[in-house]
Design a protein that fits this description.
With about 90 residues, the chain is mainly α. It has one domain. About 25% of the residues lie in helices and about 0% in strands. The longest helix is centred in the C-terminal third of the chain and has 12 residues. The structure holds zinc ion.
Amino acid sequence: MKVSTHTCPVCGFDQLKEAPRSKSGGGSFEICPACGFQFGVSDDDDGLTYDEWREDWVERGMEWSSLGIKTPRGWKPEALLKSLLKKKK
Ligand SMILES: [Zn+2]
């Protein structure tokens, strides 16, 4: 069975279990294990934009955020972020 994954619009982590936003616009409430952004909470409730969160996260040294999920082998935040930002342009 193929498991589809989704890309985090903040950090480019490409193994989110759910789409950050449903088609109707609601957040998934999933917390990105890489950057710690929670879709539907960090944005809707706390009023943070993806860009603001990303800048902050980069400033903190792009650390793996989740305590419950182990950092995937070969996770390269710089490369993921680079390809995410390239796609945005
Ligand atoms: Zn993320």
